[in-house]
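Continuing the batch. This is chain 6 of the set; chains 1 through 5 are on the previous pages. Same settings as before, nothing changed between runs. Recording input and output for traceability.
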Amino acid sequence: MTSRRQQRRYPRMVENKDKGLSCIAPSNPTYTSAEALRVVIKALNGEDIPGNVVMDIETVTEENVDQYYRSDMPDSFWVLTELDDDSSEALQVVSTLWG
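Output for chain 6:
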């Protein structure tokens, strides 16, 4: 998963991209764990599973950072997730309450 330290890079990318900052932010999104669980469940159910699962993973660049970065969310928000906006926001509220 992407660490909080890596998450803090997104605001810096947004704030500085008009100043000539050029960078990328590779990640290991949360949905890779979800896919691993899907494969494990298939194996436990006796279904055939692939020997190797290859997934396309987005790379955040200065050209596309705006579609991932959410200034309204805390650093603990995972930008590359399968959760919809309502679920992500609800999860952040619960996370904030639990501290």
